[in-house]
Amino acid sequence: MNVNPKLPQQHDFKFLPSTTRSSHYLHGPYQSSHPRPSSTVYPLNPSGSASPTTATPLTDAPSKPTLDRCTLLQDRECDLVFYQTHFREQFHYNYVAATSAQGPIVVSIATGDPKGVIRILVRTTQRLFGISPLSILGQICPAIPLQSLTSCTDPRLAPELERMEERQIIRCYKFGVYQLLPGQTLEHQGLANAYDFLEFLQWLGEPIKLNGWKGYRAGLDTVGDTTGETSVFTHWNAYQIMFHCAPYLPFNPSDTQQVERRRFIGNDIVVIVFKESDDEEQFDLDSVGSRQNHIICIVRPIPSATNSGAVAYRVAIAVKNGIRNFAPLDFPVVLQRDDASRDLLLLKLISGERAAYRAKAFATQLLRTRESLLRDVIESCS
Questions:
Q1: Of 86, 94, 152, nearest to 122 (Cα)?
Q2: Terminal alpha carbon distance of the chain
Q3: I need a labelling partner for 186 at 20 to 30 A (CA). Which of 34, 45, 138, 353 fits?
Q4: Concatenated DSSP letters for 25-73?
Q5: Pick from 276, 297, 279: which is nearest to 344 by CA?
Q6: Residue 61, Cα to own-chain centre: how many angstroms?
């Protein structure tokens, strides 16, 4: 169990910035709009050098070592046939520079080959030539040891690589949830609460009976009810999310630390802390004793003026030091109690867990796993 019973000696969390606006601006189900990286162009000159630039003219390309001349197609007639065969009747990209240090340049890139081959032609005042993929790779990614690479024609390689990548896609998530009553500010107080904050939990997901449950169980017992009889679960954008809800987990009145509840919530990367009242009492982040908890989402209900239910939620997200902000960056401080806002919150929490994977506590293990999988694929197809 990756739970540290001792409290941290110093504050290990920081709050993420959020916009002051409400999620009223959302129209319809929220969809992730991760900003696309700016286009990267790899300019090529007659000597064959290639260097990455971002929205900069070809004339600004820094000098790089030249490509091996044996990789160039020098015969102009062959070049013409090459262009007619692979470019003229197929969709391709063209990049031009009317003036540059090498004079006018036209770069043609064809990516529509049914076999996935990418072909590049560079036209200058001196010659027209094609460039091999490994030569380009050596210029773009000089850290790759080209001398170590060998061609692999084993037909099993493609499906094996696909299976390897599939195994590393995480589609199931588990988030801890507990409640703080008015006046409570510490983690162990929330873990000891047995009150059912059903309105909020039903906004997050759907209550399920664990006995006989066939979906993602997140370590919960679905046979003998040893970890409770009920939980909260939801499907969201092809992901399965199970909420480890403290009130539904085993409770021991003589255990102030509630080890059985910590066994689950203490091992969740993301934890939601639901403060029953929208008061000035601040949750003490120093009371979080688990090394696994990296994202703390503090939610406060904003009550309706006409009834006892919440019409919105005030949200603040704290992350352990070393975790950068994550999408959506324009996360509002107030979420309306509607489906669009719920989608936005789930997106933020999943993005938060993925950002935490790059933290020191997880990154090394994930890198070792990928290294092992990749080596197994190579050895099986060599």
A1: 94
A2: 40
A3: 353
A4: G--SS----PPPPPPEE--B-TT--B--EES--GGGPPP-PPPPGGGS-
A5: 297
A6: 32
